[in-house]
Automatic annotation (TrEMBL), chains A, B:
This is Glucokinase. GO terms for molecular function: kinase activity. It holds the Pfam family ROK. InterPro entries: ATPase_NBD, ROK. Belongs to the ROK (NagC/XylR) family. PANTHER family: BIFUNCTIONAL UDP-N-ACETYLGLUCOSAMINE 2-EPIMERASE_N-ACETYLMANNOSAMINE KINASE, ROK (REPRESSOR, ORF, KINASE) FAMILY. The keyword Transferase applies. It comes from Halanaerobium salsuginis.
Length: 324, 324
């Protein structure tokens, strides 16, 4: 009997599920609205519908599935399989693994989305050939996942690699976590949007205001990037400064993890030409020469499939470590 | 035939060598001046003399020795067994492992002193009962070593866990590494001494000047601590500020490594009552609640034997991981 794996990328607005063969090739996929507002029951029902859908499409039976991997925004307790809280989903302390296993009879594994993405890039993306790497996602927030000797570094209670919440300047801006000067408060999409609104409110950027129909509150990182591409120097400077702080974060990651590779992903990377050069220059000044010598920085390869392939990698990790 | 292990703590002024049984009990020890100024040949000769000394004292034969562990200040290449450079020893690119193996016929293993100390505290000190811990030494500099799932985390080319050279404020003081605002530039003994001299030069502390016979250049962290204990508020403030920055570093370490335990060692810890409370308070504000919940902070237990027991742990690591 052929064996298969399921990966489920649980997002605030959509669920993307894939059925993978033993090599991690996606042979069927299904996408569905999360319907987060409708609550726990509905969300889980929608998750199960995507799974039934891929099984039907591929004509695969449940008992051919080795395991289901789920990638979800955190904070969550991966060991206990519980989603503790979630900014975009209306649930708290949901024993998701237990519920999915009860509903499907399939062994289920849960990881936070950054850790899942790290596994995805390690096994199916830019990190295929390395044993030690750190994946960093620059998105609404900044998250990370480290692979050490080919395995995900979970930490004692699955909280390792919260790179976004390392303080790189205690006098820096207020972060969503309540601290000042976290990497995330300088270099995330949220931070860039905030800097952009501040600049626009001061009358420093007509371009951004125009792009937002004169509504300061509507300015975000995307508009800031558009303005920067149109030549707005204030917007360009905002990205450059974010790049500077990201570079300090990358340098610190190198000095701590001494990885072979750093892989950068997340939505903000779509505008990487606005900040990456600055980030790399600062990184080179921040990192010690020993670990800098052997590290390379790559962009994530999985694109919009990173959540899905990450979830598949969560399901397959044991097999991949053994055979891969 | 009974088996034994050798540990050698190589310092800039002294060599301390111990012979350990299979449980890591020291059954003979030998201490000798390094004679660093006399050069490479002499240093290695002195190392060998301490080894011959412990073997003679314990009436143990060379062929009963499983391995020799050496802890040395870095930077070094542990995998290749080469000391790359050293601030206190007059050598560069010395293939120390090869030379010791050629001279003694004993398998030799080399680690930097902070990593060796981490192994020592893991197996023989405060970390005996934990699987995931980070050891941080606060001394002339600030170094670290992480134990992940009971094994030393080396990084790709043995440069992992350089916590002292993570930037926590890019506008901070100049560090020995050439960067600004490394943790080491705020909270090491060297940093405290610098802040103390700056304060004394400004006429802010008569006590420190008195303790240094009015010679500003002679003020160091030890004098600053003496003045602080005598009630000098400027000196107390210097330690408190170092503690604040150390706390940021500890919080960052928690957010990255998610360890069960952080162990603090190094000479500056002798004055821990001057800064540790501030460090822990800041750490609690810096760390995320998830990883903070499960971490404890302890002082190193091995005291002046940490270098020696670290070296023994380097020699015994394979055995300890298997049996311990």
């Amino acid at each position: 009997m052929k064996e298969y794996y399921l990966g489920l990328d649980l997002g605030g607005t959509k669920i993307l599920t894939g059925l993978a063969d033993q090599e991690g090739n996606i042979i069927a996929r299904s996408r569905r609205d999360t319907e987060a507002a409708a609550g726990e029951e509905t969300i889980i029902k929608n998750m199960i519908l995507t799974i039934e859908d891929v099984l039907a499409k591929a004509e695969v039976n449940k008992d051919q599935i080795v395991s289901l991997g789920i990638g979800s925004p955190g904070p969550l307790d991966a060991t206990k399989g519980i989603i503790i809280e979630n900014a975009n989903l209306p649930w708290k302390n949901v024993p998701l693994v237990k519920k999915m296993e009860a509903a499907l009879g399939i062994k289920t594994l849960l990881k936070n989305d950054a850790n899942a993405a790290a596994l995805g890039e390690k096994w199916f993306g830019a990190g295929r050939k390395v044993d030690n790497m750190v994946y960093i996602t620059i998105s609404t927030g900044i998250g990370g996942g480290a692979i050490i000797e080919r395995e995900l570094f979970n930490g004692t209670n699955d909280n390792a690699c919260e790179i976004g919440h390392t303080v790189i300047d205690p006098d820096g801006p207020l972060c969503g976590c309540g601290k000042h000067g976290c990497l995330e408060s300088f270099a995330s999409g949220t931070a860039i949007g905030k800097r952009a609104r501040e600049a626009a409110a001061k009358g420093l950027s007509k371009e951004m205001l125009e792009l937002a129909d004169q509504i300061v509150e509507d300015i975000n990182a995307v508009i800031c990037a558009q303005a920067a591409y149109q030549g707005d120097e204030v917007a360009q400077e905002i990205f450059k400064k974010a790049g500077y702080y990201l570079g300090i974060g990358l340098g610190n990651v190198i000095n701590i993890f001494n990885p072979e590779m750093i892989i950068l992903g997340g939505g903000v990377m779509k505008a990487s030409d606005l900040f990456l050069a600055e980030a790399l220059a600062t990184m080179k000044k921040t990192a010690l020469s020993g670990p800098l010598e052997i590290v390379s920085v790559k962009e994530a390869e999985l694109g919009s499939d990173i959540g899905l392939m990450g979830a598949v990698a969560v399901a397959m990790e044991d097999r991949l470590v053994k055979n891969g």
